[in-house]
Amino acid sequence: MSATSTASTAYSPARVVADLRALADRTGGPEGSRRLAWTPEWLSARTLLRESLTGLPVEVDEDEAGNVWVVLRGERPETLVVGSHLDSVPKGGWLDGALGVMAGLELIRSLAAEGIPPVTVALVDWADEEGARFSRSLFGSAACVGTLDIEVLRGLTDKEGAKLPEILAQHGVDIDNLDGARTRMNDVKAYVEVHIEQGPILESMGKGICTVTGTKGIERERLIFRGQAAHAGTMPMEMRRDSFRAASRFALAIAEIGERHQGVTTVGHAQCWPGVVTAVAGETRITMDMRHIDAGSLQAMFDEAHEAAAAAAEAEGCTIEWEHIFRIPPMPFHPALLEAARTSVREVEGHDVELPSGALHDASEMAREVPTVMIFSSSIAGLSHTKEEDTPDEHLHMAADAFDRTCRRAIDLIVAGEL
Amino acid sequence: MSATSTASTAYSPARVVADLRALADRTGGPEGSRRLAWTPEWLSARTLLRESLTGLPVEVDEDEAGNVWVVLRGERPETLVVGSHLDSVPKGGWLDGALGVMAGLELIRSLAAEGIPPVTVALVDWADEEGARFSRSLFGSAACVGTLDIEVLRGLTDKEGAKLPEILAQHGVDIDNLDGARTRMNDVKAYVEVHIEQGPILESMGKGICTVTGTKGIERERLIFRGQAAHAGTMPMEMRRDSFRAASRFALAIAEIGERHQGVTTVGHAQCWPGVVTAVAGETRITMDMRHIDAGSLQAMFDEAHEAAAAAAEAEGCTIEWEHIFRIPPMPFHPALLEAARTSVREVEGHDVELPSGALHDASEMAREVPTVMIFSSSIAGLSHTKEEDTPDEHLHMAADAFDRTCRRAIDLIVAGEL
Prior knowledge:
homodimer; Alpha-Beta Plaits; 2 domains; nine-stranded mixed β-sheet
């Protein structure tokens, strides 16, 4: 089975879902999707995309960062970019990223069937959005807006020890020439992406789709609590300097901080040294992830986290060290495109629900340089990055429909010189 | 340099320390001692012990569990056993276990120089006390009292995947015949062991040695908190079921339980799944170790730990599962031998300090079957299982002296039919 390419003028949400199922048939399985970036199965997904373009009046090529560009030339060089990513986490879901690519494919198909569009429209399959193999997410979109740190990239390895520069080279990507992808942004006037929510909020509200107001800012840090390793039997409680107890105090405090500021805070990883049942942990490393749509609130949470960590360390006679992992500011989307999305959601599902995105998307990088907006579909039980990831078909249809309407409004705005 | 074997009638604590330094010269190094059980360097340590016996009227052999027995036949078959272990943890200290073996060696030397002792005296170098490679401590002493679970042993592997039964076979130990070591206990009437405290209490009291009243009972469990893995950015705080938060609540609660009962409680290991910075931990596994010298208090702590775990799980919408790891009841030492040790400590350092041992020792296994007592020396800063492990020479001398006096009193008690 291959993606459908039956010609038809009107944008068909059903065809988007059919294309998604074709992709899942080729690159999914009982354990979930297998489209890890820079692997043969990811290339297989990209081949399916290229096959689906057969007969369409488009130019297809890859930029210097491995992003696939499908360009439908319009009457003017000003460009609307749509897209998302075909890569997935290992054992991932069938919709994460793929929805945006297939919805964009259908947009290209329907526009092409209508003749030459007034502006150029490009579908991009961004390379390695997930960062699941080398821990650098948003790889391809970051390259286009120049936010990659090449020196950091040089040092990245996967679990097997393979080096990112060598793996990139195997895929025709030269780590010393990633900046070449910057030129793709020259005529870009707007970016629109549709994605599953990957969270439970829309479902809990009984809604299928919504406008996305922006992506939350993120602070990611590693915290290292250091006390004194000691024998679990011979060190009296009152003489201990227990780093895991300090980490535990912090984990509870940071949750309270997230709740109080209506943000999200997470300790998702912990490791103790020596890490055995018979020893007090002399050192405990944890990760912290905190997100907020408002930059001031995010800063306040971050400041309070530092106070909480210092207090937790002091309470247990430990020291605390912070190691920076990642930071991205909140990325509010563009007012005119937000209005286009709101109108489209209202037309399709009859409400004005809008949410900030707690997850990062390629739209987070695009929003740094060009007017951007996103549409969400619901996620069943909020699950993503797992084979259980799913969305009711009718919500996928509504999301594709609202995306199409938003894109056409974006084209109108570009033509009107308002973007 | 080899262990000293100069003949001299009187028990010489200085010779014990000299033997310990000779052992450290052969099997230590800048990173600490390297006498991991069932490795060539452990065998090298045992060879040093055998070399030190040259010229002594002793019978030396290994039992079915790999314990080395050095037997000085007395006028009667009733036997005093002394000993400890030459094996160490990787990068361990120079005194842990070795002190007891070398102090016992000096006892054999001094008794042999005095003629045939009234009862038989045996020095044992217990095999694999630490359990550092296969996670089963007290291997050799447990074999002698029949407390090994052979079926559990069959499944044990080291970090490289080597199987315990095969490694034992390489050392002449048949896993199906470990019970043969039981016969060694037939004539044993008492067991005396000297060991470093491995904790900071004696040092904090300004003392060099003390009588040990028994070894604390231990409950070791693995706790598995299960919630729901979720995206760190998209799952609202109020909808989370965060297993690491549940584990954190438990870690703080169990510390309070240990303090309140004047026992010790430790969470030394934690592991989260999926265990990444960007995900709420759906599952967190931690270990719990709790110890008390009083069986009733230990049971109360254990019961309260179950209540605390249930409350922590419920507070975070998680479930809790317990996996049993290890259990040993408190092992109070023998009244007559305790009196002998107290008298000896009083003679040597002039006080009546006594402590329970928070660490397990081979004496914990021996105490199941025969009258047992221990003497502790101090540990600088309470450190053990590390190359920094050390004890002032004068404290080592006092410990060896008090051990010698206690052993001679034990011999008198055996002769008098009081053990």
